[in-house]
């Protein structure tokens, strides 16, 4: 919901460190791969209840997710980079609730399943819209720097990361937070279906 508003600030803050990485010959794809590796390590951290470590790894993953785009803007974006970025993002989003489910299956498994199912809805509607928009040569004016056509919604990246951080800070609140966010994601999915229905109506 607020990703587009945060983009200009994100670009300004990440440009200096991105310039350092470029000067050292580090590519955007390397940053993407390293970021996903750090994010994947949050899964065992969460499973073993190392909430502080998991929080640090989640933040590191998100910083890398922003840095790879900043590096790409300096060196030239690629289709492979855009593909890796979005594919790894959706995988990472599923790993976090899975980690909480492994930490306490009795309390967290069902809320985690609901949250992951809702992520399937938001992710599939997002990618389906992007694929059809690309076929029609359409772009999202609010996200001019993105490698694919972005469709916004009530739950976007910023809200999802805020959720994950809140879960790490108050792990006992995971079931409630997961269910509430799953409901918001479901609403986002339905709205995206409606937008796609209208945007891609036959002429």
TrEMBL record:
Keyword Kinase: no
GO cellular component terms listed in the entry, alphabetical order: membrane
UniProt keyword annotations, A-Z: Membrane, Transferase, Transmembrane, Transmembrane helix
Gene Ontology terms: biological process: phospholipid biosynthetic process
Pfam families named in the record: CDP-OH_P_transf
TM segment ranges: 36-60, 81-103, 109-135, 147-167, 173-195
Source species, domain of life: Bacteria
One Gene Ontology molecular-function label: phosphotransferase activity, for other substituted phosphate groups
Family: Belongs to the CDP-alcohol phosphatidyltransferase class-I family.
Protein's recorded name: Phosphatidylglycerophosphate synthase
Organism: Gemmobacter caeni
